[in-house]
Amino acid sequence: MKTNYNLIMEEIINNLKDKPKLLLHACCGVCSSSVLERLYPFFDITVLYYNPNIYPIEEYNKRLNVQKEIIEKMNFKINLLEIGYNNEDFEKISKGLENEKEGGIRCTKCFHLRLEKTVQIAKKNHFDYFTTTLSVSPYKDSQRLNKIGEVLSKEYNVKYLYSDFKKKEGYKRSNELAKKYDLYRQHYCGCEYSLNEANEYIKETKHQNN
Ligand code: SF4
After folding, report:
1. Tens digits of per-residue pLDDT, 180-194?
2. Domains assigned to the chain
3. How much is the pLDDT for 80?
């Protein structure tokens, strides 16, 4: 049976006594918009933009700029932490998994890579909680994501904020905010392989429609 991680998050929030420090890994500005709106009243948030999976670097920078844009446009007092483009981190973990379909084991490793960096930085800088915006996407398996978060939480002894941000229409809200603030939206998940997969799909669809 699937765990309702949104309910778990709501329970955590209901039991908060103050505004804890949260290190929120953000995959992109669009996804983070509804998540920030939701968490901002309850946490002292720092956004971590660590996405070595994104290819090419121009796309990485584009998404980083959207991340800055949304924080500014939504008028949030939030720090943004960016630690540079480390595509080799992703290359290491995806070696041999180039032909995996989106959603497969390469993605599990990609989630783990980004969450582990998040918990390491959270630990070093005395954050109370860490989590990621990734579960806002209907293409991301929140069961898998939360299990990775749980394991890392025990390993590093930092509290993990369980979440399933797509619940309560989180994904729909992200789309609305992207429209409202006129944000750039990418057509692929992030890595070189997902870019190829998305382009193939577009080509096939065009071919079928001709
Ligand atoms: S498809 Fe997305 S989640 Fe999967 S490996 Fe590529 S960038 Fe990471």
Report:
1. 999 999 999 999 999
2. 5-185 (3.40.50.620)
3. 98
Residue nearest to atom 5 of ligand 1 (CA): 107
Name residue 28's amino acid. C
- CA 158 to chain CA centroid, nearest Å: 18
What pLDDT, on a 0 to 100 scale, did the predictor assign at position 208?
78
What lies within 8 Å, CB to CB, of 150 at 6+ separation is: 160, 162
Q: Is the pLDDT of residue 104 over 90?
A: yes
Report the separation in Å between the CA atom of 19 and the middle of ligand 1, taken as the mean of its atom positions. 32
User: Rounded to an integer, what distance in angstroms lies between the CA atom of residue 210 and that of residue 208?
Assistant: 6
Closest ligand 1 atom, residue 189 Cα: 2
Cα 187 to averaged position of ligand 1 atoms, centre (Å): 13
